[in-house]
Amino acid sequence: MKQYIRNITAGAALLLMVGSCTDKFEEYNTNQYQIHEADPATLMKSMIETIVNIQQNDSQMQDQMVGQFGGYLCPSNTWSGTNFGTFNMSDAWNANPWNTNFEKIYGNFFQIQEATNSVGHYYAFARMIRAITMLRVADCYGPMPYSQVKKGNFYVSYDTQEQVYKNILDDLANAADVLYDFNTETNGYAPLGANDPVFNGNYAKWAKLANSMRLRVAMRVSNFLPDVAKAAAESAAAHRAGLVETNADNAIMSCGTQNNPYQIAAVSWGDLRVNANIVDYMNAYEDPRREKYFNKSTISGMTDKYVGIRTGDQDVVKASAGGFSTPNVTANDPMMVFCAAETAFLRAEGKLRGWNVGDKEAKEYYEEGINLSMSQYNVSGEDYLKIEEAPLVSHVSDNVQKAPASISNTVSVKWDDSDNTLTGKNFQRIITQKWIANYPLGLESWAEYRRTGYPEMYPCIDNLSNNVVSTARGMRRLAFPYTEKQNNKANCDQGATDLGGADTPATDLKWAKKN
After folding, report:
1. Rounded distance between C-alpha atoms, residue 393 and residue 381, angstroms
2. CB of 158 within 8 A of CB of 491?
3. For labelling alongside 350, which of 124, 187, 435, 461 has CA 20 to 30 A away?
């Protein structure tokens, strides 16, 4: 891995050099053909690329290393014994998901804010991208600076967990309104154009994504802020822009001139393999999407199988681990941001909660989610939906890790018509099938695993946290970065009081399942 740690103070210093453009507000919001020195359309591209990291080092540090807790991918290197998987990451690594996102979002965000005088479609779009990216930060750390961040100063007071999720929901709701109305009023004009690697500037599709992201955030806080969650979910589902409901509306990001970062990490570096959790669940279900997700193992005697690597192995050697299955991606493959299947599964859970999030019943949305995912990968789910037996998920011993394990707390695929509660097996079915469909969005799935406890996953092999983190429960959050404790100590200490526990990786965020 190429070491890639930025200094947030350097980024803040650069922000101080940005000049005011508020006098050009009318031009920016009415004459989109005019080229400007700080044209918001050109500033937006690097911001968009943070919602799932295209940049190879950022992807490795965040979506792969931290994302391994979601059960999809797993680093196959130990980097001299420091790793998230063994719960003993360095301070620099622990700070990366915070500092990198602050730097990459706010430099351009402040320029757009000034250029538009904080109104109009460009500013609404920038707020939406900030919300989607900072959701990932909040899900990792908890309380954080959000509403009080100003140009040139990240070291401000923290929003509480309640405040930050409410503010994210507000930014997404505003974007759905502004972007959809702009698209309608201009007959589909796309001011971002080629600077948008997801929807090529189609604001109507971005508005749908904003609404589906509202559903995701609402579900995240559904037990923590039930009234807020219900209102946000129902508003998103009823919104005039609609939701991401078909695979044609899936948010898929082009990597442009950069190679797919999963392919780089797996093939060029040899640092990434598929996680045993997702492989073994899909093997147990005989899931037809396996060949789309994974490549088969090259381990001797197992070359006809998909074989994942277990997390948290302090003795893993990259050369020896090379035979485990790799993600089935090529250098030119785009990256998934959000899929229609997730919307369907979110609605299915919403129906179990009694929310008005659509005209169908929970069962219909659940089956729709499975069928959408199967269609997304051009396979049939007809037989899959009929699976009536809950499988035993197991990991057989191989000649590399020699670490067998099994999970019995699983569910069948077929819906149980007699079960319509949040404590029953149908809820577990929804979460398990959403988890499979959301591959490889590791940070999102880590959050949902902490929220729901599903699906059950294998424990890490080696826990090097000095008894701070439970092997059974795993990492529950990231501790606040050392940079915050050094440069923003008073506000960081105040933010820590909102945790309701110590600032350690063992403390649950307020929306997480406690047992």
Report:
1. 20
2. yes
3. 124
**DSSP string covering 349-379:** HHHHTT----SS-HHHHHHHHHHHHHHHTT-
Q: Please work out, in degrees rounded to the nearest 5, the angle formed at the alpha carbon of residue 112 by the alpha carbons of 94 and 176.
A: 85
* Distance from C-alpha of 306 to C-alpha of 298, rounded to nearest angstrom: 9
Distances (CA, A) of 366 to 179, 216, 220, 414, 415: 29, 15, 18, 10, 8
- In a structure prediction context, what are the per-residue pLDDT tens digits for the chain, which is 515 residues long? 444 333 333 333 333 333 333 333 333 333 433 334 568 899 999 999 999 999 999 999 999 999 999 999 999 999 989 999 999 999 999 999 999 999 999 999 999 999 999 999 999 999 999 999 999 999 999 999 999 998 878 899 999 999 999 999 999 999 999 999 999 999 999 999 999 999 999 999 999 999 999 999 999 999 999 999 999 999 999 999 999 999 999 999 999 999 999 999 999 999 999 999 999 999 999 999 999 999 999 999 999 999 999 999 999 999 999 999 999 999 999 999 999 999 999 999 999 999 999 999 999 999 999 999 999 999 998 899 999 999 999 999 999 999 999 999 999 999 999 998 999 999 999 999 999 999 999 999 999 999 999 999 999 999 999 999 999 999 999 999 999 999 999 999 999 999 999 999 999 999 999 87
The one-letter code for the residue type at 387 is: I
- The verdict on pTM exceeding 0.85 is yes
Are 322 and 270 a contacting pair, CB within 8 Å?
yes
Q: What is the DSSP letter of 246?
A: S
CB within 8 A of 95, min separation 6: which ones? 5, 481, 482, 483
Q: Tell me the two tokens of residue 17.
A: 């050099």
The string over 431-442, giving b where at least 16 C-beta atoms fall within 10 Å of a residue's C-beta and e elsewhere, is: bbbbbbbbbbbb
Q: What is the 3 state secondary structure string of 53-77? A: CCCHHHHHHHHHCCHHHHCCEEECC
Q: How far is Cα of residue 448 from the mean position of the Cα atoms in its chain? A: 10
Residue 95's nearest CA partner among 507, 444, 479 is 479
Rounded Cα gap, residues 381 and 288, in angstroms: 8
CA distance 412 to 432: 10
Q: How far apart are CA 60 and CA 216, in angstroms?
A: 24
